[in-house]
Known about the structure:
Blueprint: E1 3-8, E2 11-16, H1 21-27, E3 51-54, E4 61-62, E5 73-75, H2 79-94, H3 110-117, E6 141-143, H4 153-161, E7 168-170, E8 177-179, H5 196-200, E9 206-208, H6 212-219, E10 225-230, H7 251-261, E11 265-268, H8 269-289, E12 296-297, H9 302-311, H10 325-333, H11 336-341, E13 348-354, H12 358-363, E14 378-381, H13 382-391, H14 413-416, H15 423-437, E15 455-462, E16 465-473, H16 475-487, E17 494-498, H17 516-532, H18 542-552, H19 558-564
Parallel strand pairs: 1-5, 10-11, 10-13, 12-17, 13-14, 16-17
Antiparallel strand pairs: 1-2, 3-4, 3-5, 6-9, 7-8, 15-16
Helix pairs in contact: 8-10, 8-15
Amino acid sequence: xxxxxxxxxxxxxxxxxxxxxxxxxxxxxxxxxxxxxxxxxxxxxxxxxxxxxxxxxxxxxxxxxxxxxxxxxxxxxxxxxxxxxxxxxxxxxxxxxxxxxxxxxxxxxxxxxxxxxxxxxxxxxxxxxxxxxxxxxxxxxxxxxxxxxxxxxxxxxxxxxxxxxxxxxxxxxxxxxxxxxxxxxxxxxxxxxxxxxxxxxxxxxxxxxxxxxxxxxxxxxxxxxxxxxxxxxxxxxxxxxxxxxxxxxxxxxxxxxxxxxxxxxxxxxxxxxxxxxxxxxxxxxxxxxxxxxxxxxxxxxxxxxxxxxxxxxxxxxxxxxxxxxxxxxxxxxxxxxxxxxxxxxxxxxxxxxxxxxxxxxxxxxxxxxxxxxxxxxxxxxxxxxxxxxxxxxxxxxxxxxxxxxxxxxxxxxxxxxxxxxxxxxxxxxxxxxxxxxxxxxxxxxxxxxxxxxxxxxxxxxxxxxxxxxxxxxxxxxxxxxxxxxxxxxxxxxxxxxxxxxxxxxxxxxxxxxxxxxxxxxxxxxxxxxxxxxxxxxxxxxxxxxxxxxxxxxxxxxxxxxxxxxxxxxxxx
Length: 572
């Protein structure tokens, strides 16, 4: 590729042909402010905050969408540029509900940060905010159109990454806004509650429905025995809200923080991730050996379950009957656990800390109460937990590490990789291979199913059988793989599908910002925990073995079917 030579703020740089001014500026450490731009999305060029002055050109150029030319001389910090940027931001603010102190994104808002960088301290334009009713109809996600800056990021992620289209650009010109079809409540659309729109929103126009106060009330109720579980992906992301690099492992510090908050017992969702492998792995074997419905599709991602129920109900018989690890934990916390410690199940209150907004809706499903009690009482996102920790004056960085409580706190490396795309598949293969062959699996790392690629395929030799597997992350990739199966172009035994890009590490409830670079670092943290684990295969978990011996009898037993398995419904 040919090189282009140009000058930016008196710094010479040589870049590939086709590079934008914005990217060229980054190469010489010149920061140009942006707002609609997102590193993992298509260039929009709609906000014009990134304008620069190009020598010989009368109008300012949007640096995010203007390719460089040979000999270009660019200035990013002239009076003309500064005045234009301020004017643009002031116009955005004039139509923005700037109640920053009460906003969920206060301190982590791209518009707020931009005002600080441009030294905007007063509003010169008349406010023209349209205070529409806040849409809280959805069980997981809240929309506040008075804060929307019409950048289009949420529309792109909903349409192109997830393939849903629950929101879109409606009307034209100055009347254009981002809305649902016919301005319906988000609950009345095809929204799957994944929260990816929240992750890309630069302001507070989209956010999760908060359950923080519900949890505080439970913790203050002396009649309740409040237990908490944390998902695999939380431990490599929470630190970001306390200034740590993405992928930092803070498992033991989270345990300490949760004890400070007042939880009676601190458990690990990884325990039931191991249990899921036992149930799901045996279900796969049963289907293969008894001409059951194949390919079997994983069931631990609630956003994906919402998707298949609405868009591909013909595949519902292919979906594993296993509940997700979150719901399996809740079922055991209301049955096995109270029996073990001698308390009344009605007094047990289960809180989940999840990377996922769709988990809030999953916990409320009527199917999730086979014990006679709701499996999980309330779900907090990673972001909500960070807020609670800060509310009591704790700093993750200063806490000593502690261990999970027994018996639901013991887990393996296979369980923690559930947090990354391909992890469920890899964990299942580690166990299925040894159950089928009776031999020790030496090379337990199936790297072919790892990574951010949308669809990954592999064939694994298990005894005499070539097991054909696939992994998909993001719902657009899920749609693609299902269409391949539907058309007969592909044939698999087992498919793992995760709703969110990168898997749970990129869930809709994780710390913001989220980019592919951040996802990669979180994934590294996940596999580092696995590599350092003493036990790396789910069927080797001693606490799970005791659970079967004392309570469940065996995988796919009557008791496990009653508590750990469920069914899904055609909602098309």
